[in-house]
# Entry
Amino acid sequence: MSGKNLLHYASNGFLLLIPVFFWNLILATRLPEPYQLNNFWHNIPRLLGITENILRAAVFLVPLFLKIGFKEPRQKLGWCLYGLGVGLYFASWMMQIYFAESSWSRSAAGFLAPAYTSVIWLFGIGLIGKELFFKVPYHHSVYLALAAGFGLIHSLHAYLIYLRI
# Structure
């Protein structure tokens, strides 16, 4: 494989999702009961669930076609947001796993943190993104809008779960 081909793969935005996917895969079953799939999707309005899943698919599929960069000021800000967001996202999970009975974890802000902190790292990805790998007009604001929509709907979903506990 040539250096150019390797760089092509190393600049794929999907790589930024891998730590989050592994984190979710490894630790999701350790989250408190309200977060478990059988509870989290129970009695959620159908339109909310459909909208959330469409937006989820978009924010996780677009990076597969997104070339990331490091040079522009916007991209540097994106890397900072991505790092901060992933750190806060992981910390929000740790709070729910290890301190589920704390006043923070039982508050709306604490319970919803795994949902709304995802917007920070998703915005980071949106700002890091340079262009698509194929010739289609693209502007980072499209991904930012998708990420904001997903964050809003995902947080609303989490809030509906919070109201049950």
Observations:
- Residues 4 and 92 are 38 Å apart (CA to CA).
- Residues 3-164 form one domain.
- The radius of gyration is 17 Å.
